Structure formats: C-alpha cells, structure tokens
Amino acid sequence: MHIDHLKIFVTVVELRHFSKAAKVLNLSQPNVSLHIRNLESELETTLFIRSPKQVKVTAAGEMFYLKAKKIIALYEEAKQEIADQKHIVQGTIKIGASFTIGEYILPRVLAEYAKEHPQVNVEVMVGNTEEVIKKTRSNELDISLIEGEVSEQEVEAVPFMDDEMIIIASSSHPLAQIRMVAPDLLHDQVWILRESGSGTRAFSNQLIQNLNLQVKRSFVFSSSQGIKEAVSAGLGIAMISRLTVRKELELGELKEINIGNRKFTRKFSIIKGKHDFVSRAHDLFIEKMIQSNKQL
C-alpha cells in the first residue's frame, strides 16, 4: 500500500466525487478509479457505492478513512521531522481565511513568508467565517484566520490583531454631513450587510441590536467590495472593517460616520484543528501572522 493511494482515497471521501478528486489531485478520473479499485482489492472490501449521481462511502470506507487520515498525518510528521533535522522548512500548508483577512492582510504576509521559505507550498481557501471554521474543525484546513469570537471546542484560537469597525456612507448621504451622529439618527436607515455566517455580518447585527435600531430596509452582499460599491452608489450605510476602506476614505469616495466618538473593535484570530502534529512550516507561518500586527 502506497501513501499516494491513501491520499487519493481520502480526497475522494472528502469530495464525494471521483471527477472533482481527480481535478484536485491533477490526475485523470480513470487513474483515480484504478487506484481505488486496487485499494479495494488489497483490502478485500468495498469502500464506495458508486452511482451516476453520487458516490456513497460504505461503513468499511468510513472506518478506513479515519485510519487513513492518521496514517497520512504520521507520514507527514515523520517526513517533517527528518526535514527539521536538516534545518529545512518544507511541506504544504492549507490556510483558510475570512474575506477581510484573505483580501486585505494575508496576501502581503504570504509574499514575505514565501520569500523566506521557498520550499513551502501554500494553498489558500477564502470564505466567510462560518465556512472557514467548519473546514478547520474537519481538518480540511491546517490553519485559519478569522474575524470575531470562536466558541468551537474542536479548534484552538489565538487572537493576533484588533480590527477597527466603522460605519460608512456615501459622501452625499445626509449622515455624512453631520460631524458627530447621535445613535438615534441611525434609526430607519437602509443597511448594506454581509451574508449570514460572515464575521462582519455578526458584528453588524450585534451593533444594531445593542443600539436598539429599527432597520428600514437591508441589502445583502457576499463581499466587502460589493458593500463598498453599494454604499458609494448611495444605496445605504454599512459597518465594515477600516482596513477595507482606507483608500476610499482617503480619496473622499466614502465617509466615516462618527457615532458619538465611539470606537468599535473586534478580534482577528488564528485557529487550528487539534492535530497531534504541527510542522515547523505551520509554526513559522503563525509567528509571521502575529508579527504582521506590528506592520499594519
């Protein structure tokens, strides 16, 4: 049994699809199917029930999946320990990031990290906070960077940065003409919100609830860029990370609404699954992210 056979098997289980697994692994579908058939022959059992519409994992397949994940982890651990003995930082890191971090912080940090550690391959998945936590909990991601609080017991969280949240409006919005806005003036406004599951959406909902605001109407966008464009067009107001609108504020394209000199902040956190093994490459990336707080 070869380690590559196990990796192919695990990928098919996680994606529940032979064609998608083949694409991710950069193999042909017949090649993936052949590896699985050989594995089933060696184990003398059926691992998948195949049909034109779906791939279902058998009870034996589910059991073997858990064991295969452990074997792969032990293999990677041994491989990394040997590399560490040679003072080489190598391997692959699967990083998840919520949209704000993935679009405005992670690229610069990764550029520096890649220069320092050219033998480390990095795979990045950007999604909303809920999606990223879910994939970290299931060990599909090694490390993730998220907004807001983490209550999941299956992951470990380390705050690495404070993020200032501000309310923005177009330069022509009536609230943008007021130097200091009383909270009650936020009643009956149109709000531009992120989708459910987003850390920014959770923070916005909490603010609206804490100030007992009546929302006149709301529009939902799945990206910070969409929110900025909607606000700039005069569709409504929004709460968003200052990091995402620094340029627009400097150019006067958007205006910050000062709510009684209040400051709103949230935490950015590094989370990871509770693995038995964390490589040197993972540790160095976490150190790099923590250091990035001083540079932003």
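Second entry:
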Amino acid sequence: MRAVIYARFSSDKQSETSLDDQVNNCQSRAQREGWHVVAIHTDTAMSGSTKVSSRPGGKALLADMLAGRFEVLLLESLDRLARDQVEQETIVRRLEHRGVRIMCLADGYDSHFQGRKVMRGVRGLINELYLDDLRHKTQRGLHGQIDRGYIAGGKSYGYDIVRDDSGSRYVINELEAHWVRWIFQQVAKGRAYRHIVYDLNEKGVPSPRGSSWAVSAIYGSPVKGSGIINNTLYIGRYTWNRSQWIKDPDTGKRRRVDRPRNEWREVDIPELRIVDPMTWQRVRTRLDQGRKHDGLKPSRRPLTALLSGTIRCPHCDGPLTLRGSKRYGCGNAHDRGPTVCPGFNISRPRIERRLLSVIRDDLLNDDAVALFDSLVQERLQRLGGHGEVLALEQRRQELQEELQRLVDAIAQLGLSTAIGQRIRAVERELQTIKDEIQVVRASSGPSLDTGKAFKELLVNLESALQASPTEARHAVSEILGPVKMLMRGPQIWAQIATGPALQIAIGARGCMTGCGGRI
C-alpha cells in the first residue's frame, strides 16, 4: 500500500517534537507494515489552528489526496493535522470518504477502529480547549506584567528593551530618538510623507526593521495606532491591548480587530517621553484633516490589478503595482525613493496578456484536467441535490433581505465604513450561492463534460478573471508564484518560479520548476 507522512512543528508550543523525530517514527511504522512511502509533507512553525489548506505542506497533502496518490496517512497524532475541532473533522471526513486510512502513532487513532468517532471527538475537543486555555493564560500573564510595571509588547523604534529576571522595560535609545523628533518636526511643518522617507533613505538612517524607510513606517494607521507619528509612547503614554487577531473561519486567515476602548491598557510613563506635547498636537491636527468623525479616511476602491505584488522589479526585487490605469511600476521606487530603486515600469496589457498565456499553456495538459475533474466531482458530492438547492435558495433570500435593510440604513444614516464592508461581504456571498446553485442543478441533469468545460474556461481566461478581480489576483499569484522581471539589453524578460498551485496542477510534486520568456 502507498503511504504519505505528514508532520508539523507548532510555533505556539514551548516543547515540540522535532519534524525529524515525527517523520522517522512514521517511516519506521510504514516499514514494519510493509507500506511504500510515496511522499512526506511537512510544515514548520505552523500553528495547529491554521487551516490545513493554508499551509504549504497541508496544501500538498490535500492535492495528493485529490489525485488518489496514497491509501494510508501516517501522523504522530491527530493534533498534527489540526487542533481546531471543526477543521480536523472536515479533513478527516474528506480523507475517509476517499478511502484513506488514517493512523496516528502517539494517540493510537486508527480510522479502521469502530470507536474512532468517539475518540476523534474527545481528542478534538481537548485540543480546542487547550488552545482556548493557552490564549487565556497568555493574556492574563501579559496583564500581570503591566501591573508590575513591565511591558507586554515588543520592540518600539526609539527605545531599547532592558530585561531582568522578572520582565522587560523600555529605555530611550538616544540615536533613534533623534530621528523620531526629526520626523515629527518634518510632519508638523507640512512636508510630504514621501519626501521625508526619501531624505531618511538618502541619509542612510536604518528603519525600525533595519532596512529602508517606507511611507507606511511613518504614517501607519492613526486608527490602529501604528506608525511612528501615531505611537503614544513618544509622549510618555504606554498603550496596550487595543486590538486582537481573530481568525476568519471561511478563509483561515487572521485579521486585526480593534478592541473596545474600555479594554485598552494605558499607563503614563513620563520618563519615556521623546516628543513634546506641542509638536505632537500639531501632527494630530494635520492627521485629522480630511477624516470623518470615526477617524477613518473615506474608503478607497479595492485593488483590482491582476498582477499587483506578483511581478517583481528587475532592479530591487520590490513589488510592481499599478500606476495609473495602464502601467505597472516599482512600489519601492515610488514609496522609498531613488536611493532604494531607480524605478521601473511596464505596459499593463502587455505583461498581463503574456503571463496569462503561460497559465493557459501549462494548464492544458491531462494531469491538470484530471485534477479539475476530481475537484468538481468532490464538490458535487458535498453539495448534494434538491435539498441543497432549497437550503441555498433560503440563504439567498435571507441575504437579499439583509442587503435591502443595509440600503435602507444608508438612506437614513449615510454610508459608514462598517456598512460598506458588510454590503460587499453580502454581495460576495450572494455570488457564491448563485454559482453553487448552478453547479447543483447541473449535476442533477446530464453528466458534465468537465474536461471540455475546463478547456473552454482557459480559452476565455481573461473574461473569467474579470468577473471576480480580488479572487483572480489571489489565484494568479498562487499559480505563477513570484515573477522576476529581467533586463537584457533593450529587452524585458520574465523569469517564473512555478507557484504552488501550478506545481500541483501539472504534477511538479514539490519541486521548484521555472521558465522564462521575453515580454
């Protein structure tokens, strides 16, 4: 039988079994059973609460599962797969549905045992309670450190951290403090943030991260308190616990959420003051100009450029982002100045057309078509039939009613950031439900020719990507990976290190492959 080993090292544990030990133990078991190990997938410093599909090794594991490349999955324990109970149960059921036997060495779990569901449920609950308890104890300990006069955060520009046996304290770093005062003075005078950044980089002043300065390092977010000019520590007020990271159960990605003001911890430490109150207030006055009552600037349209951040500058390897509507330009040259990068730009239609042809050519192969068919069939089985359509129709009706209520709220209260974000979320879910209803109805009729549909989609790739720009940007980035632009005399070339999604689709099986071509 063919076996796959999965191992994960968790960064949130103080004593973690090494990846090598996990893999060696699983290999020994496979050897005793006479199983042939066809692949080993690992994730380093990845939390068990992260979705399996969001981990590099986990993504490769799922790709092998969909392709039917193994019959046995070997793990040290189920918590290596996932600590989140819902995520763990979802992945296990997908594996078992495809006939994969799951064996865990440390906790004795075997998906062939009759009592596996009880064992899985109990262990999943224990793992989730462990994460909740760990978060609570960590937060309680940090609050205690502040009560004892210590700090609970990390490095802050302008200060050094002095540690003793009980905790850490800030002391002023006079060299960095000089540049903090200089930045505040320049902002108070009304200088453009970009020009301040250019001067800092030209003078060779190290940024908070030790590299070159960017506008974001200075301006940050007035609402979130990030950035040099928003750090209240510079006027002797230590602010902590103003936000938290929450994981989105749909995407598995973390997002920063502001806490209520009454949960903030603010402590006056006058000996850490670097900026005088008058200069601080002048900067606040400038920041407040053009802002709404909640401190936010009017919302901008989301980025829709297909290749923003994916293609890289030939001079500094910085991201190329949209400049105007028809050209990509180097973000470092724009945000950090000529000291960092002399600048580079390229025609948007030209580069998009050329790189999309690469995707189209590479995906028109039997392995990619087979994987697409496998994914579609699995989705159809999960969605079910008529009952699922009724549930989706009911949910669509609920969302349409909510959308109407939001429109009514705009008429009465005006458009706020929160209402605008919710409207966009509802519209995205409505589109998803519409697509799922079409898929379910198609599955109840004549069988789909998925290979033909897949090839037609590739032929009309540009139109398909325009239908959902945000998702398209993410998908193209996953397929292509980083695209390095190269200058060869008067010619511009693109060097592509095949992205993880395309490796899976074309059967690259974990190796980095690449290609290049003239643009």
